Hints:
The structure holds two protein chains of two kinds. Chain A is built from four helices and 13 strands. By secondary structure, chain A is an alpha/beta fold. In chain A, a hairpin with a 4-residue loop joins strand 9 (148-151) and strand 10. Chain B is an all-alpha fold. Chains A and B meet through strand 6, strand 7, helix 3 and strand 9 of A and helix 2, helix 3, helix 5 and helix 13 of B.
Amino acid sequence: MKRRDRMDDVLPAVNVPVTVWIVRKTDQTEPARDAAEIPGLLADANKILWQNGLTLVQSGAVHYADNTAWLNPSTTTPTDLQNLDALLDCSSGTGGVELYFVRVLTGKDGTLNGVKRDKGIAVAASGNASTIAHEVLHACGLADIYPQITILPQGTKVSIPDVSAPEMLPSDWCGGYYEPGLMQKFVVARLIMSPGGYGNVPLPRADIPSGRVWGYRNFSTTGDPADELELRNVGLSGCHQNPVSE
Amino acid sequence: MRKVLLFYVVTIALASAAQNPGVRSFDDEAIRDMLEGFAVMEADNEESDPYQRDLPTVADYYRMMEKRCEESGVDKRRILDVAKEEIDRCAAYVKSTGQTPIANNAVRLLDLVAHSGDRSLLPYLEEKSLDPETIKFIRSAAAEVYVNIASVEECIEFMRKAFGINDDKGFWRSRVTPLFLGKMESAIANRSVSDETEERLLSLLMAYAQITSYASEASWVDDFLVKHCYGYRMSEQRLSLWSRILDEDKENELKRKNYLPIREAIEAIPPRKRTDLRKRFPDLSPLPDDAPARSSAKVAIAVAVGIVAVVAAWLILRRKKAHEAA
């Protein structure tokens, strides 16, 4: 379903049912997350997702997945991915989002706060409401965007070099809304689809723009960083589906 | 002459810069940039985003940084020093703002520096692991790196301290303890542990088993002791451990299913046939069924008082009989 056809449409309010799973050890101890935290996390994620007309609504009680092997999943090897997908298959066909709270989540490039896969979303114990909102928006079809990029192997870090201009956020340029001289890297760092902050200042990430925004599509490159710049699909116009886990 | 020399140096520098336009000195700022670049980025959408595939692994990334140090003639320990500053900065930020996702940046940096294997990190890692003010994600990650880098002997002393931090019932050790026990297991299998060190390890684990209420960790330790500590399987100490854990959570069906058979198996043995490991490990705490401890002095006094009482009674009886006879 295309949620938004024209930029001046009023977004329909959509309640997204959320099935919540908390992983515990096989002996039913050590839940990765206290169930009492879930309503607050969803409420805070909704403060961000309301920009997109989405409201996460917990569907039923919290479920527990009692399997020690699922407590600290990884996406490093194919076997690890199978194990993670086995967890994410605890529910299927719910018609909404499935959130799986785990303790530590490891990717091949290091630990993660959250990961979106087709079968569901895993959130590590260090993840918070912003993590949930970010992953849910991945499930809507949005991509990541980065304000800076590291050139490997030298390790030189470069930021988007430009001052914000209409062509860098064509759907969101409001003529004077932005302070003069505002750098594009700071616009990008505030976006919910920007996984990190900017440099030493982890800015609060919460913004969902109307349309595409100019920024890096990757966080490292071995080539010319300019080749990694493009208008990224991080805005409402890119939300081509309601978030659904398979 | 000086002008010629200056001209020569400038020419060489310019020529070098022209040949390597992308190369920049690997100074602290460059190291920090590379660490930040690694710390804040997450590939969290691999299925849908082609740009998040084929990324360098953590080990690859660390080796790149080491290579940059070699090329620039910079001591590799600068990576560790700058990383420590960055980890501290993240920890302080999380503490002041409650933004737990930033803790992951520190965890990622700890994972990165772990690839150095540099033992100079140990004091820092110990401090981070045992600092109650540091968020548990960072503590746990620091402890894991410590156990990976440290020697067997250092690990034992480290875990002696770590077992004492139980503000979250000890759950923060849930990845550390299996790592530690796995390392000890390998070391014993490789015969790289002296008898004395193994005895210290067993003593530590026996002492821990007498106080813990953390069932999963107790189970890992129990498995280890069953395998490596002669006499433990049918010991009073093992009975005490599982009795305590079962009594503290009587409603948990799974605990009863898993641990009640252990308790029942030991209870089926007559008490005098069970092992009491206090002879081997004298520092172990008393068992719950022990009579209150009596010192030998107290016993001696009690015996003396008893004798005096008997003598006094005999004298009184004798005097009474003499009086009656008179």
